[in-house]
C-alpha cells in the first residue's frame, strides 16, 4: 500500500480542513492511507502528494473531494442515541417550547444528520408527544455527505442502526423491508426533510428558517477550534431567542461562545439562546 509522508498528511489535512472544517488527525494516517488507496488507483496517481494536488487543482476536484470526504468523515449514528438527553428533550424542553410558542409550528434542525437516524428519532418522539398533537412539525436534517443523505431519504436500516431501539419502538415506528432490514414508517418520514449543507457555509445556512431547536451532536468534535466557533456563531444566528441548542455529550461551548446560556434541567444540561427583551 502507498504510504503517506508527514508532509503529505499535512497538505491533505489542509485541503480537507478548508473544505469542511474536518481535521485529519495524525493518528488517522493509516485509516486515510487504506481508505484512499482505491482512489489513487482509480485515478492512476502514484502517491498522496499528487493526490492532494489533484484535490486542489484538477478541474474534477469538487467531485473527488466529495468522494474523499465520504471515505474519511465519521458517519457513525443510530436511532435513540444518547437517551438521557432525548428524555430531557421530551419531558422538559418540549413543554417549554410549547409554552413559549407564538403559533403552533416548531422548526427543529438536525445539523450533521448523517444517514437520518437522528431526525427520524426526533420525528418519532415529537409525533407521539401529547403536547404536540395538532402541531405542525418541521424537522430538517442536513449533512455534507450526499451518500448519507441518499441513505436518509431511503430510510431503510439494518440491525446496527437499531441497537438502542426497544421492541415497542421497533413495532411502532418501523415496517419490514427486504433482506431482514426495516423501513421507517411513512408518517415518521413525512415530517422530516433533508438537504445538503456544509456547516462552514454561513451563506447557505441563511436560507433556512429560524429554528426553535438545533441538534448538532457528535459533529463539532471533528472540527478545529476556529471552525467550531464559526459553526456555533451560525447556530446562534439561525436560532430564535429562547431556542435551544443540544450538543453531543462530549461537546460543549466552553471558550467557543458567550451567546448561549447553560440551562440546568433536572435530567441534563442544555444551551439556550437568551432573550433580549
Ligand atoms: C458522527 S456523525 C453524527 C450523526 C448524528 N448527529 C449523531 O450524533 O448520531 C457526523 C456527521 O457530520 C457530518 N459533517 C461533518 N462535517 C460537516 C460539515 N462541515 N457540514 C455538514 N455536515 C458535516 C458528517 O458527514 C457526518 O454525517
Domains (count): 2
Rg, Å, rounded: 20 Å
Q: How many strands in all?
A: 10
How are the strands of the biggest sheet laid out side by side? 6-2-1-7-8-10-9
The H-and-E topology, N to C, reads as HHHHHEHEHEHEEHEHEHEEE
Instruction: Tell me the overall shape.
Output: globular
Note the total helix count.
11
**CATH-assigned fold name of the largest domain:** Rossmann fold
Mean pLDDT: 96
* Cα end-to-end separation: 61 Å
- Could you state the CATH homologous superfamily of the largest domain? Vaccinia Virus protein VP39
Helix content, binned percent: 40-55%
Question: Could you explain how this protein is built, in words?
Answer:
- It is globular and about 60 Å long.
- By secondary structure, the protein is of the alpha/beta class.
- The chain is 43% helix and 18% strand.
- The chain has a 7-stranded mixed beta sheet with strand order 6-2-1-7-8-10-9. A 3-stranded antiparallel beta sheet has the order 3-5-4.
- The chain has 11 helices and 10 strands.
- It folds into 2 domains: 6-72, Chemotaxis receptor methyltransferase CheR, N-terminal domain (Chemotaxis Receptor Methyltransferase Cher, domain 1, Orthogonal Bundle); 83-272, Vaccinia Virus protein VP39 (Rossmann fold).
- It binds S-adenosylmethionine.
- Residues 20-22, 73-77, 81, 112-114, 118, 143-145, 148, 197-200, 217-219, 248 line the site of S-adenosylmethionine.
Amino acid at each position: 500500500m502507498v504510504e503517506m509522508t508527514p508532509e503529505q498528511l499535512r497538505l491533505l489535512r489542509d485541503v480537507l480542513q478548508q473544505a469542511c472544517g474536518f481535521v485529519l488527525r495524525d493518528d488517522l494516517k493509516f485509516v486515510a492511507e487504506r481508505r484512499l488507496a482505491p482512489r489513487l488507483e482509480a485515478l492512476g496517481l502514484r502517491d498522496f502528494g499528487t493526490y492532494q494536488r489533484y484535490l486542489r487543482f484538477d478541474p474534477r476536484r469538487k467531485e473527488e473531494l466529495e468522494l474523499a470526504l465520504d471515505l474519511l468523515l465519521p458517519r457513525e449514528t443510530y436511532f435513540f442515541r444518547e437517551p438521557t438527553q432525548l428524555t430531557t428533550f421530551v419531558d422538559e424542553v418540549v413543554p417549554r417550547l410549547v409554552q413559549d410558542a407564538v403559533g403552533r409550528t416548531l422548526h427543529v434542525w438536525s445539523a450533521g444528520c448523517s444517514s437520518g437516524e437522528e431526525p427520524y428519532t426526533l420525528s418519532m418522539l415529537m409525533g407521539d408527544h401529547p403536547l404536540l398533537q395538532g402541531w405542525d412539525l418541521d424537522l430538517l436534517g442536513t449533512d455534507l455527505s450526499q451518500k448519507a443523505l441518499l441513505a436518509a431519504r431511503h430510510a431503510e436500516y439494518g440491525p446496527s442502526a437499531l441497537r438502542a431501539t426497544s421492541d415497542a419502538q421497533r413495532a411502532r415506528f418501523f415496517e419490514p423491508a427486504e433482506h431482514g432490514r426495516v423501513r421507517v414508517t411513512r408518517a415518521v418520514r413525512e415530517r422530516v426533510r433533508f438537504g445538503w449543507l456544509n456547516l462552514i457555509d454561513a451563506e447557505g445556512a441563511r436560507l433556512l428558517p429560524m429554528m426553535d431547536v438545533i441538534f448538532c451532536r457528535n459533529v463539532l468534535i471533528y472540527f478545529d477550534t476556529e471552525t467550531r466557533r464559526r459553526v456555533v456563531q451560525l447556530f446562534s444566528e439561525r436560532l430564535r431567542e429562547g431556542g435551544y441548542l443540544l450538543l453531543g455529550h462530549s461537546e460543549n461551548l466552553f471558550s467557543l461562545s458567550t451567546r448561549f446560556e447553560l440551562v440546568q434541567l433536572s435530567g441534563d444540561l442544555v444551551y439556550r439562546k437568551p432573550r433580549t427583551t
